[in-house]
Amino acid sequence: MAAGNTMQVRLWMKLAGQERLGISHRLALRPDMLRKDFMLLHVRTNAPVLRGFATTSDSLYLWQHSDTSGTATFTVQQTNYTLQPALPPMSTRAESLPEVPQVTGGAQPLAVLDTFQLDQEGLYLLRTASGATQGLVVQGGTYPLVTRVQDMITPLIYLTTSTEREALYSTQDQKAAVDGFWLKIAKDKKLARELIRAYYTRVETANKLYTSFKPGWATDRGMIYIIYGKPHNVSTSPDAETWIYRESEATPYVKFVFTKKENNFTENHFELVRNREYEENWYSTVARWRAGIINL
User: Fold this and answer.
1) Integer CA distances (angstroms), 79 to 51, 103, 124, 176, 233, in order
2) H-type alpha helices, 110-237
3) Dihedral angle at the C-alpha atoms of 145, 149, 150, 156, nearest 10 degrees?
4) To 5 degrees, how large is the angle CA 78–CA 82–CA 84?
5) Does residue 19 surpass a pLDDT of 70?
6) What is the per-residue pLDDT for 225?
7) Environment class of 240 (CB within 10 Å of its CB; exposed 0-12, middle 13-18, buried 19+)
């Protein structure tokens, strides 16, 4: 595996109706990738965990081609990473990467081929004896789908004020509060349903495509996809993606550049190149959502 080689993959994701989203991935191939000699799989289907996430109800096992007897061991450690939703595109604050947990005697080794479940939400790191690692985001419910009320509230951080979020979290009937938020925006039940469907369809797509060391909705690409929708053009390189939204009657032209950030958990983490010049465009786009006039 020579330095400078890349692998390109084209992924087609089916969206609502007949719409499809084509995403190109160009992965820079490195010699140290040969150290990863294992695969994480679902017990029920034997399908590999390729997108970097699982749920708290999933039964998993590790397969290692160099040891079909199942005598090799590996460890699974939860990190102390606190979820940080993406900051607005004009923010100047830098995002911190999660720290790799130290190998300690408290990390209980598991045997290859043994079934295990991770019943607490969070970010985990799998590590084999050879030193190969894989990050895994574990979420409850039916992730990447949005079926729990708490999963409807958290992505609203991009549309709500701090006062509105506090009210959503503190109320006893959160489902009614979420419905009330959208109805207040739409001022019409039919439009409210359309807005809810559009917003959370985008959240689910972001979860499927952009989960890195945190849920897809909380990543930079997830935030932009949720608020702006499917980009008109995406160009990729081994270390960056450029999204372009063409000018229309409703929205002006805008370009977002995401650069790949190396880490020990995932190859799918890209950070937005932020700029204060995004401020007017961002607030006007959010304002359209809050006025119930976003293009669906």
Assistant:
1) 19, 11, 6, 34, 36
2) 149-153, 162-170, 174-186, 189-210, 220-228
3) 80
4) 135
5) no
6) 97
7) middle
| CA neighbours closer than 13 Å in the CB half-sphere of residue 52 | 22
The torsion angles phi and psi of 275, rounded to 5 degrees, stand at -155, 140
Residue 280 backbone class (left: φ over 0; alpha: ψ -120 to 50; beta: rest): alpha
Q: 127 pLDDT exceeds 70?
A: yes
- Write out pLDDT tens, residues 23-62: 555 555 555 544 567 899 999 999 999 899 999 999 999 9
Tell which phi-psi region holds residue 17, choosing left (phi > 0), alpha (psi between -120 and 50) or beta.
left
Closest CA to 79 of 42, 146, 127, 113: 127
Mean pLDDT score of the chain, rounded to an integer? 88
The answer to whether the predicted template modeling score (pTM) of the entire model surpasses 0.90 is no
Residue among 60, 71, 54 at smallest CA distance from 112: 71
- Residue 24 token pair: 């190109």
Q: What angle do CA 230, 202, 248 make, to 5 degrees?
A: 35
Kindly list the strands in the beta sheet with 233-237, ordered across the sheet, starting from the edge strand earlier in the chain: 233-237, 240-245, 254-260, 270-272
